[in-house]
Write a structure and sequence with these properties.
Radius of gyration: 43 Å
CATH superfamily of the largest domain: P-loop containing nucleotide triphosphate hydrolases
Number of strands: 12
Number of helices: 21
Strand content: 5-15%
């Protein structure tokens, strides 16, 4: 792992690091405050043999070593405790060190009581002198005693030597930081879900075309950008639209994309619908096709009738002109899935499907196809061969890394044209870097400024619609109103002119009925009708249904 990747992991797992650091630091401080304070007092004592007798004995370094070992022995500590009488529970320890090159001992006493520590340090020297002769053979032979002279008396300490709060906090800080980093790296190693762009870039070199943030709790997951055209989600779909338009240069001039996901439940249909709306807002002629013939949901998401649609057209029971529905007064047309067929893959891979898409690509600026997920079925690959590229929606905190890697390998195997990825449900903390841009013009100061300008210049009661690009079946502006485009009620069938239409050339293939058809159900799709489009090769099996 490179250092930059290491920092990226820490950035994404910063909560783990901070929580670990705070827990260890809190435990360290709490444990330090619970420890009984210890005070230390030190004195320096000079030892020598009584020299009143001529030819007497002189203490050696070995003798001082003997005194050093006697300091914490019962023969010294017993009488010392009896003389000091410390309070019950008061700790007391005494140590000594020989001063190099001189007959002196540095005596230190530690106690939970400052006064006891000082008194014990000062009392050890005389106590050693009183019993020293019994442990030095030379003194016993000459009958000399030991004389102890205090050089530096011990003073009552004002501060404890332990515990050291500053030192313990520093150690706790280092320990907590090390624990947090270790846990963050462990979580990253054990994490099986896609959390950020880094996980996508690890398995594919295709670009990230958009990051769609996670909607607040209680918000409908299928919310359309038209519900709040100036909100942050709407801006994110516009950014995705712009990036996809730039990516369009790699699709061989086909302004068409199949929108899919790795597995069900990642938000591909919501992305398809909002992306189509965003493209139509730019004035482009857009057709959104529900190519998910196993679990269609585009019509339900947009509030349209879905019984007549793609399958109905492919079976020759209607035309696109009759089946496509207008979305409000925009340049967006929607072709629902129609009835669910028993053999979706065969229908999508048929010659009629290829012929139909040739006509659609010639009639619209953009054709978007909502398809099933990549891993469960082959349908997205079949549609990819008909369009310019594929947009893969990846659900953050939803998609498994192994599933994403498998999907990428599967798409590479069939040489699918992946235009890029769209991260969906990105947590607000990660998507927040876009918020400062999208918030432009939406603050209180901006609102007050707009109100001031409106009071001076007046304001429009109704927004002026942008005249869309010409699209078959939409009348142009009237002579008296160059700004007002023709409006078609939402859900109304779209009927382009048949005299000069691309679709008219395919009438012999699709064989439309002479009158508008009744809603088609899967029971009406008998084998005879299906075989007219898809020659039977093997016994078709009913496809599974997947939730978006």
């Amino acid at each position: 792992m490179q250092f930059r990747e290491f920092l990226a992991v820490l950035g994404s797992r910063w909560k783990t690091v901070v929580v670990s650091l705070l827990l260890v630091l809190s435990a360290t401080v709490a444990a330090t405050l619970r420890i009984q304070p210890t005070y230390e007092a030190t004195t320096q004592v000079f030892f020598a043999a009584d020299s009143t007798k001529p030819g007497g004995y002189t203490l050696t370094t070995d003798d001082l070593g003997t005194f050093q070992r006697l300091v914490d022995s019962p023969v010294v500590m017993g009488p010392l405790r009896d003389s000091l009488k410390p309070a019950p529970g008061t700790s007391l320890t005494v140590t000594a060190a020989v001063t190099d090159g001189s007959p002196m001992l540095d005596i230190s006493a530690r106690s939970s009581s400052a006064t006891t520590a000082a008194a014990a340090a000062n009392a050890v020297g005389p106590e050693l002198a009183s019993i020293g002769r019994d442990f030095v053979p030379g003194l016993l032979a000459t009958g000399q005693n030991v004389k102890a002279t205090t050089i530096t008396p011990a003073e009552v300490p004002s501060r404890p030597v332990a515990p050291n709060l500053v030192q313990n906090v520093a150690l706790g800080l280092l320990a907590g930081l090390a624990l947090g980093i270790g846990l963050a790296m462990l979580r990253q190693f054990l994490d099986t879900r896609v959390r950020s762009e880094r996980d996508v870039r690890a398995v594919s070199d295709r670009p990230i075309l958009g990051a769609l943030r996670l909607l607040p709790k209680g918000t409908d997951a299928g919310t359309l950008m038209t519900d709040d055209p100036h909100g942050v989600p709407a801006e994110e779909y516009r950014r995705l639209r712009t990036n996809l338009q730039f990516a369009d240069v790699t699709t061989g001039g086909k302004h068409s994309f199949v929108i899919t996901s790795v597995m069900p439940g990642e938000g591909k249909t919501t992305t398809s619908v909002n992306l189509a709306i965003a493209l139509a807002d730019s004035g482009a002629r857009v057709l959104l096709v529900d190519g998910d013939l196993r679990n269609p949901s585009v019509a339900a998401a947009m509030g349209l009738e879905g019984n007549v649609g793609l399958t109905t057209v492919l079976l020759g029971r209607t035309t696109v002109a009759q089946a496509a529905q207008q979305w409000g007064d925009s340049t967006l047309q929607v072709l629902p899935s129609g009835a669910i067929p028993p053999n979706p893959s065969e229908l999508l891979g048929s010659t009629a499907m290829a012929t139909l898409f040739e006509e659609l690509l010639a009639a619209y600026d953009y054709v978007l196809v909502d398809s099933p997920p990549v891993l469960p079925v082959i349908d997205p690959v079949l549609i990819d061969r008909l369009v310019g590229g594929m947009l893969v929606v990846v659900g953050v905190n939803c998609t498994l890394k192994r599933d994403l890697a498998q999907a990428v390998r599967q798409l590479q195997t069939v040489d699918a044209t992946v235009a890029g990825f769209a991260l969906n449900r990105v947590p607000n903390d990660d998507a927040g870097r876009y918020g400062s841009y999208y918030a432009y013009g939406r603050g209180k100061k901006d609102r007050r400024r707009r109100e001031a300008v409106a009071s001076r210049n007046g304001s429009l009661e109704e927004a002026v619609p942008v005249t869309p690009a010409a699209i078959p079946g939409l009348s142009g502006p009237s002579d008296g109103d160059e700004h007002q485009a023709a409006r078609t009620p939402q859900g109304a069938p779209y009927a382009p002119p048949q005299s000069d239409s691309h679709f008219a050339r395919s009438q012999g293939i699709l064989r439309p009925l002479p009158s508008p058809p009744a809603p088609t159900t899967s029971e009406d799709m008998d084998d005879t009708a299906i075989n007219a489009v898809v020659p039977p090769t093997t016994q078709p099996s009913h496809g599974r249904r997947f939730a978006d």
